[in-house]
Amino acid sequence: MTIPAVDDTDPLALETALSQVGEEAESRGRALVAFVKARVWVLSDRDPGPDPETLKAAQLSLVSDGPNQKQAMLAVFSSPERAGRFLADHGGAPHVIPVEGPFAVLAVPAGAGIIINPNQAPSFRIGPEAVDYLKEEMAHARDRYATSPPSPP
Predict the structure, then answer these.
(1) Which of 50, 51, 104, 111 has the smallest number of CB atoms closer than 10 Å to its CB?
(2) How confident is the model at residue 105 (pLDDT cuts 50, 70, 90)?
(3) Helices (H), the chain
(4) Distance between CA atoms of 64 and 34, rounded to whole angstroms?
């Protein structure tokens, strides 16, 4: 399966990919690629300010997976407005923090998944197994980079 490229210079690329998700695997693949390339927003219990170490220790808001209330999912948003709307309607950690998609993946607790734009449309679910797979792939990429970093241009 070839997944078409996502324009990661477009701040609405994730929104566009989410709105085009259908039953076909390619549309879900585009949404996943767009998510990994995107800046997204999470709800945090603290404002990290300029210190990234603060964010590493932060508690990020988790939600349930719809009717499966025992399945924890990291709440991730495609825009700060969507995060603010969720916070106003449902509560959660009070700080809306921008992070890169890969950071959000790595911040997911063991056994949890991700819901992009929970209780809003368009939304997208990344199950715990897929999150585990993404974490493994990121670890492999980090290891490959550590053994042979790219040459400077």
Answers:
(1) 50
(2) very high
(3) 13-19, 25-37, 52-56, 80-90, 101-107, 128-147
(4) 23
42-87 pLDDT, tens digit each: 999 988 877 777 777 888 899 998 777 889 999 999 999 999 999 9
Alpha carbon distance 145, 151 (integer Å): 11
Strands 68-77, 113-116: pairing kind: parallel
**Which neighbouring-strand residues pair with 99?**
40
User: Can you tell me the distance from the alpha carbon of 69 to that of 48, in angstroms, rounded to the nearest whole number?
Assistant: 29
> How many CA within 13 A on the CB side of residue 76?
32
Distance (Å, whole) CA 14 – CA 64: 22
What global pTM score does this model have?
A: 0.84
How far apart (Å, rounded) are the C-alpha atoms in residues 54 and 44? 10
> Which pLDDT does position 1 carry in this prediction?
41
The dihedral region occupied by 44, where left means phi > 0, alpha psi between -120 and 50, and beta the remainder, is beta
Q: Is the dihedral of CA 64, 68, 71, 77 positive or negative?
A: negative
Other residues' Cβ atoms within 10 Å of the Cβ of residue 146: 8
